[in-house]
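Protocol step 6 of 9: fold each sequence in the batch and record its structure tokens directly after the sequence line. For illustration, a two-sequence batch is reproduced in full.

Sequence one:
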Amino acid sequence: MPKSEILFRMLYGGRIQCDVVSPKGYKLTLSGNSNDIIPEVGQGMLGDNRALVTNTWAFALARYEAVTLPEEDLQKAAEKRARQFKKTAGWIAEVAEDLTDEEKSGWCSSCFGKHAHRKAKRPVGQLPAYVCGGCGTPTLPCASLTCKNMAVREEGSVRVQRYCAEHRHEIPGFEKADRKMGELSDYKEFLKYDKPDLARSVKMVGLAGAGMAAAAPFALLAAPAFGGAVGALLGGYSGAAATNFGLALLGGGAIAAGGLGMAGGTAVITALGAALGGALGGSIMNAYVREDKSFHIEMLQGGQGIPVIVCNGFLSENGVGWGEWRDIIRDRYPDSPVYRVHWGARELKHLGLMGGAGAAKFIGGAALKDAAARAAKMAAKRLGPVAPALVAADLAKNPWHVAKNRAEKTGVILADLLARTNEEAYVLVGHSLGARAMVVAAQTLASKKGAPRVQAMHLLGAAIGGRGDWKDLTALVDDAVYNYHSTNDNVLKVAYSASQPWEKAAGYMGFKPAGGKLLNIDVSSQVKGHSQYQGNVRLLSEHPAAPIGPAEISA
């Protein structure tokens, strides 16, 4: 059977163009700048298929990176992604060009919306194929005899059972995925699966593409699970394309391979606000919980005040109950319900090996030397802000970087959970990488219309870069973001700087620029180490005219 043709061209002035010609001669032309996420779409019926447009443009962007990135290993990685995007786009064009009037209505396992699916003409002997009227992804009926939902239809004629997202446990349930859940303590009930995992016992054969299970648009296995969900959410991708695109955006190693990954992990994560409290957000949450078995939220006390959420860094793996939070929280919020977020036990266990001067050696070592050399080389080539993202490739397996990315994902999941509750506002409190998670949660909530507000934030020894544009951090804050930092924090001074030499941690030097609702609280005279914040700091409130105790406030 004839295949689709997909051609890439580089134009003048950094512009690129990609042309798709289906087997029957239907054409699609996309064009734009090499850093555009959304392309200009030419006329024609294929342009109405969102999955085709986004996968084709992803191919064009990856192909551009494959010929322009400065190093051979980065070029090869980009070229590999380009081939996967191209294959997915060709398959979608092949199915979408020849649709009948026959339709089925059902939930789509790619976009998680309920849509009409039009049947496509396929050769005799192949599995049926439909096209979702919402996202354009090829689909087919779920293999469960009693299910009316639609599974993702992968390319090929191999006869294996394909199950919908509900029966693959890629989503807790289609019907409840975009519903509110009441209080935060109800999250476990929300995550309960409505249907059995029928795909669990199916042996998948003849499969290809990044080690994925065939029918999964989000490849909900370990890290690819989360990356796949985000790839589908931000770009409408499916299959291998969704996984690779999502991992690139989230900093899962592929961020250094070019393409949209250069935007940086946190900046892209905060763009997820549109999905908070919705079906796609529920899919991302489900993927994360399957990936991080240690994630759970513990209620420490009830109350009538504004709910307070605390999140640890290094100590999360062993901590249960209040831990070191009891006095510092009860002193400031005695009447509030308090919740504690547990996360990343495996990653934080590795970080627990660090201490004192040995931390820099543990985090950096030979990888740091190589990264420094690469950074200098890239700076010479005038890559500017791109260089740190590329350097991160060499440190992708470094315990600090792995835990840092986990913290950011935790922040996104927490934001989705908060967006599903009926509360009007929360207080967010975090220490170390837990503070990083809280920053990402606040940034993500700020991108969601109608999300709960943040009454106040308290960040203790925050393990996040201090310099940047922090408008989205304070956008939903009523009182202030209080950043308690100490120049005596050697973990942030030595270890953080060793792992990320291009920036200094906010918990060490403060946020810059600060001012307005973003306040730096210098607690150096009280805090002599990274684990001494909770026992030596008193949480401030409502822009005090004078600091409490020996702390100093700076804008």
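Sequence two, same batch, same settings:
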Amino acid sequence: MSYRISVNLLEEKVSDSFLSNLTFIGDNIEKELEQWEHISKFINVNPVIRNVLMTSYDNDLDFYYDMKRVEQQLDTYSINTNIFAYVSSLVVMGNNGRNLLYGADANSLDIDRIKEQDWFSEVNDLNGQVMWLGIHKNIANYRTQNESVIALGRAIKGDKNDKIIGTLYLTFKESYFTGLLKNIELTDGGRLYIVDNRDHIVFDSDMLLLNEPFIGMEEIRAQEDKGYFLTEGARQEQLLLAHVPISKYDWRVVETVPYASLTKGTDGIFRNTLGVFLISFILTSIIWLFVSSHIVRPIRTLTNSMKKVQEGDWSVRVDIERPDEVGVMYKHFNFMIRRIQELFHSNLEEQEKKKNAEYKALQAQINPHFLYNTLNTIRWMAIIQKSDNIREVVEVLGRLLKNTIKHEGHFVTVEEELSNLRDYVYIQKIRYNNNFDVTYDVQDDLLGMPCIKFILQPIVENAIFHGIEPKEDSRGEIIVSVKRLDDELIIRVRDNGVGMSSEMLEELVKRMESPEASGGIGLSNVKERLKLTYGNSSDFHIRSEKNVFTEIEMIIPIAVSDLRLQESIEVK
């Protein structure tokens, strides 16, 4: 009677390592059986053996000489493998009426009885495949008839059209497995079996049940794959039976272990485990009290301080000094709060400066003097020319003023900044009777790049008023270029006006760097806004040569500009 295992203790005892050992044994046996199949393959393809099986002999002498050649072939093959020592008999029964006999027990076999076996006709229908015949008594009339052997059969085919020319019957001694498995270590009281495809015992570690049917194969085959279960032995004792299949040959590796040996010492283990658990629990409680008083409580104090900071109380400080890591956390927390306060105030100051600069920029955009000059130009055009161009000037002026106030953020795209500049230049060219030209050298892929608004108009205005207007002998020219160099945007405004001497340029730079620098939306205003927005990542250069040129160069980082433009869009 068999029972399914339901006890956790047994599931732990019969672990993966237990079944892995059986799997290892099964894999080795499978490789050994493959070697016996290789012998059958050698016989099937050997030309000398095939020639003997396909020859019709007129006398026995010729057959005798050919048989000697066959024996030489087998002796030569046996040199390359050590399993030939276990061959009991190797018989090839030819369809030409001749039988090839090899092995110590081959001559004692009853060939006629072999041919009467059920498998003899079946093996010839397997298209040359090997048929394992399992373990059985030698089919002999004397001497070896009581010895157990393991056998296989195979049909031998000729060279042409796969015609069967004979049948191989190969047997080897059961001691082969004894030599193979003699060093296997088993659990105390355990027993190892190898069971063939006919459910007969091929190997028994106790050497008592060879060639006997294995009891319990029905339940083993019901599990299909490897597994284990409880069963009763011959003495009514409970056994744990574990099994692993040798799938290729439908054989099994089986091990039985007395249940008592698995549960032996369980009570002692339980008592020891309980004692260790109680001691561990006491030690853990003591450690927890220590951790709670020296670590958890200080960390809770730090957490409460953090919550107060989250609620807006920036005056919180933790005034506890400790030499350990918690003390370091306190010190870093206090430093972090002080640093955040400093950065907060610094940020407020920067925002205030930006607002002031933005206010100045907006104020300059609607400078009364600029509006007066523009409106005066429109008035004289109306009086003198009586032209519809007045409408165009008014539209440009309206668009310029509209673009000045519609952007609430600090950033616009290069394309929008250039659009504002063109409107401004249009009005100024009318005012100055079109005595200067403005050229734009801008890469198309940079039109969508972000930049600070109102940085080109003040520079161009400075070029017109201080560079082009004082120059009376030739036509003025202003070049506005926007280029990219690596991750930087290079913006240049160059005019061919009166320029500056080195002394004048040096004086201008000093005036711009002075804290009291002012002047509406002039160069100092643009430089200050670049510094407030980009910090040290931006740059502002002035180059000039008297009576030749003046060039303003602004360098701004593209990555920061992209981020600031996105923030500006989100604010809108």
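Proceed to step 7 once all outputs are recorded. Observation for sequence two: Residues 89 and 113 are 15 Å apart (CA to CA).
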